[in-house]
Amino acid sequence: MLVGRRAEQAVLEQLLARAQGGDSGVLVVRGEAGIGKSALLQHMRETAVAMGFAVQDAAGVEAEAEFAFAGLHQLCAPFLARAVELPEPQQAALGVAFGLREGAAPDRFLVGLAVLSLLAEDGPLLCVVDDAQWLDQASAQVLAFVARRVGAERVVMVFVLRDPGATDVEAFSGLPELRLAGLGASDAQTLLATAVRAPLDDVVRDRIVAEARGNPLALLELPRGAPAVQFAGGFELPDVVSVPRRIENGFQRRANSLPADARMLLVVAAAEPTGDAALLWRAAAELGIAREAAAPAEAAGLLEFDFRVRFRHPLVRSAVYRAATPTDRRRAHGALAAVTDQQVDPDRRAWHRAQAVVGTDEDAAAELERSAGRARARGGLAAAAAFLKRAAELTPRPAVRAERALEAAHAKHEAGAPEALELLTVAAAGPLDAVAQARLQLLNARIAFHGARGGEGPRMLLDAAKTLAPLDPALSRETYLDALDAAIVTGDRGPGGVRAVADAARAAPAPPESPRPVDLLLDGLVTTFTQGYAAGVPGLRRALDAFNRHERDDHAVNDGDDRRWLWLAGRTAMSVFDDQMVHALAARHVRLAREAGALATLPAALLVQSVMLVLSGDFSRAAEQTAIAAATRTVPVLHGQLILAAWRGRSDETTEVHATMVRDAVGRGGRTEDFLAQYAMAVLHNGLGDYPAALVAATRAFESDELTHSNLAHSELIEAACRSGRPEHATAALDQLSSRALASGTPWGLGLAARSRALVSTGPAAEEYYREAIEQLRNCRVATQLARTHLVYGEWLRRQGRRQGARQQLRTAHQMLSDMGAEAFAARAARELRATGEHPRSRSAQPSDALTAQELTIARLVATGATSREVGAQLFLSPRTIEAHLRSIFRKLSITSRRQLRDLRLP
């Protein structure tokens, strides 16, 4: 019975109506246990079926949270027959994830794209994922990613979360939410009347309603479990224990009143998360429990038996399991292990066997270790970590236990779980050999850096690099580079600063006879930070060429190390003002990450590419890259959004993202996040013409090793200082920019330096520098800086009284800036044009102006001849969504075919 949820019903029915009309819908339904989520979703299912929807259910199970992709498999199982129609990479990723085939560990993105393609084939479709807080980590990440990219499918995805969540549900943050509160007094009284047939004294009724706090399950269950005498005197005070706990306690009392065999059968059912009735009966037989034991449990309304075993409510399962004695839990798991087929489901058998052990058991631990290997091969790092953690607990020999704890810590850290430090403590108790001790030290350092982002991280990484030097020279060199990158990122100028780390890295072991790209990058950066920029540029160029050449070299081993270090290589290409190399390395990084579906590296790759696209004036493509990164819910997302919003001149959006970054950085010691935010604010304020504010922000940004390394801060500081009438504040930045430009010798660097010298110069010298800057910047891809050079040159000409020349420069600047979407800078150019007596022309409307950023990206890709499936793979959208966007694109552009799209000159 659904009482008092009319507004919530309307929200869900609107989602269904939208999907029926060809759109998609996503919703997270949150609320405490018993608040009515299940009843509301059952109403939605019934409504969906009546509207012609197919309905597919999945549910997180607490005991199943360690099995990678278990929840996802539940949802996708009915659609797997269609997997043969997917492109081979998606087939392989899905098959390996579900344990149906062998292969390299699939990434969540590729699995997500496969799931998206499967769900998009039928429609309309309602997917309901109940108890999503208990999904395994791999399933939660994939499903959240799919929800953010479901696009124009006739699919509704609803995730049901219990508050407070049993596990981290960060994956679903940011999705539309419907939070269920308790029923109002009138609705609560109506529902209570259905549970208590006898007349109630008004005072007692009001007290029951108050104690239930509007929780529907409490209103139904508390009276059912209470002695009749309590109806006369009321219940205990409402602040004694929380409502969900009271409900759970009521289920426990009901279970404890059953015969012993029925109670034990409940414990076995609670310990077996798949609901497989045949498996349950085999386990019951193993324990000598007859089928008749089920009758009292069913009569008590605790669970029902059919082809599947279903508890009345998830709280029944947890209440039964928690109330069971340790001995009964072990008996239940032991019976389940005994009847689980080792060939069909070896991992679940190993898990049950492990829960049945008292003390230590090497055979059980070894079986778990093998399960961890299988989980890792499927991409289930969280599952592998859980198996290894339990294996370590069961291991009798200290040395083996320490090794397994260390492996578990590595897996926990890779999976982003916080227990890694606890496992390192176990591993440190040892004994460990020298190599293992060094690996422990390295992991400790990485955890410290990623956790605090402070000065301790680089120092600890240096210590680990020194320890590794005689044991593993190659890993030692990589760890020195890790330390150097960490120092650049943290921006700490103290003992853990870049210069100190670079000095220490001079002691790195010699590279092999054929140095890898990573070796050349370490040597180039060490030279740069110890001997100066000019001395380091040749080595940095050799390193960048090696990374770029590595892809084309048939004899090179193109492994995951390239993906890992291309993030730093791309930023280093910016440091030598090599725009072509930045584009090449960023594109390669994104491509490699896509091909491998590397969840950890794709967002960073997209960030570098989107920043370079912004600087190139291609804001629409940058926006699409940022949107893809946003679907991953990872840290670099805000960086890309911030820089794009600032260059677009969108003050409110930039300020909002800036505030979020600064707030998030406080707990992590995120100095570079703050510096990057200051750079973006400097761009915004320079565009708006608020030069004093730009100077404050740019001065702060210039303090960052990261931003001076990538050369982003110099020109903003110089322009802000000069336009504020305080050119003396630009001296250090101008000197450094000029010397770097001369050493790099690229059009980008030389053009920026010439423009900056023009800003601090007067008379003929200034004009010569402006012309030089324009000539240089025309020869590179950094269109934003060329447009801004026309702008500042035009401003200077107007102040010299040379209106005709000023108009020519300002017209060019206004046209370029308007076309790329740099709204604030374009408005600044328009103001200057009006000051010359010329009214700026409105930008000529282009057919593509009607397209959204995503539609423009799709149109460009289709214009190259790419199929809908190929475009979808690039943008992590289903082919059906691409087709829907194409219909919109054709309508907006008044065309009817892909051939016509290829004939258009899209910006």
UniProtKB/TrEMBL annotation:
Pfam families: AAA_16 (PF13191), GerE (PF00196). The keyword Nucleotide-binding applies. One of its GO terms (cellular component) is cytoplasm. GO terms for molecular function: adenylate cyclase activity; ATP binding; DNA binding. One of its GO terms (biological process) is regulation of DNA-templated transcription. Signal peptide: none annotated. Residues 844-907 form the HTH luxR-type domain. The keyword ATP-binding applies. Keywords: ATP-binding, Nucleotide-binding. It comes from the Bacteria. PANTHER family: TESTICULAR SOLUBLE ADENYLYL CYCLASE, TRANSCRIPTIONAL ACTIVATOR DOMAIN. This is HTH luxR-type domain-containing protein. It comes from Streptomyces lividans 1326.
